[in-house]
Amino acid sequence: MYFTPRQRDLSSEQMAGLYETLSTNRVLHMYGLMAHTDHGAMPRIDPFSPHFIADAILAMNMDSTVRPIWVMISSIGGVVDDGLVLYDAIKTSRAPVYTVGRNCMSMGAIILSAGNPGHRYIYPRSRVMLHQPSSISGGDAATQTKQVAEIQRLHNLLVDLLIENGVSKPRNEILMDIDREFWMNANETINYGVADQLVTSDILFPIVHS
């Protein structure tokens, strides 16, 4: 959430202070819709948007130390292209990026899977959902045909990313799984290869003592 001076009250000031403290300790948050714009209008400039987090990861890579960066994820998904900006920032980071899933849907689940191998965490009662990308088609028949082809390309790309990140199922089985909404609890998410282990107090200790 982005707070202008006029919008701030005591509680939002406290929230801003909380997230500033966490970001100082290299903890970032992917909350809400994974999109750079709000329904195609003005760009989002809040600290929870995928582009902001991608830029923050870049800035944290300027540190001479290579301490881990933690990305906490609670997202319903959103625009694939915007999510891929964050995905690439995680994958090209010199510092290791550890992901922590709360509830991760669609592109949020892909971002969870992108964390450093062995360091993709998920809360015990979280839920994760994968599905194929969608779009609102418009225009003439030729335009719609191109839009369908692009959606299919993105569909295949997301499967490629899941395989790249450790999902060991054959491609055709993954395609069948995510043909419709494919829901998993925390343990199923780990078994599927999207996360590595459950969040425990021992895992959280480095975050609050970094």
Note down, in words, how this protein is organized:
- The chain is α/β, with parallel strands linked by helices and 210 residues long.
- It has one domain (10-202): Alpha-Beta Complex (2-enoyl-CoA Hydratase, Chain A, domain 1), CATH 3.90.226.
- It is 43% helix and 19% strand.
- It has eight helices and seven strands; from the N terminus they run H-E-H-E-H-E-H-E-E-H-H-E-H-E-H.
- It has helices at 10-24, 50-60, 80-91, 107-113, 141-164, 171-177, 186-192, 201-208, and strands spanning 27-34, 69-78, 97-105, 120-122, 127-130, 182-185, 197-198.
- Strands 1, 2, 3, 4, 5, 6 and 7 form a seven-stranded mixed sheet that branches.
- Strand 3, helix 4 (107-113) and strand 4 (120-122) form a beta-alpha-beta unit.
- It is globular, with a radius of gyration of 18 Å.
- The chain starts with 9 loop residues before the first helix and ends with a helix.
- Mean pLDDT is 84; it is low at 1-10.
